[in-house]
Amino acid sequence: MSETSEFRATFADVRYxxxxxxxxxxxxxxxxxxxxxxxxxxxxxxxxxxxAERAPQFAPRVEQLERELSAxxxxxxxxxxxxxxx
Length: 86
Fold this sequence. Notes:
Elements: H1 3-24, H2 27-54, H3 59-85
């Protein structure tokens, strides 16, 4: 499986476990989501390194993905904070 395919599959797991956790509040799902997010960030870092070497013209796209991944994680954290307040 290519790096990008692995990243897509991992991030699909992040999204899936995020939604399930928000609806079920199962701490095992939260841990799985955190692990998947960590793996996704590592995979994206690997992709960034490969792209810098082999196809530097795509660097802005990879950097945009990094920003979007970070924004997704921030939005989830904010949602969690709202849940905890209520």
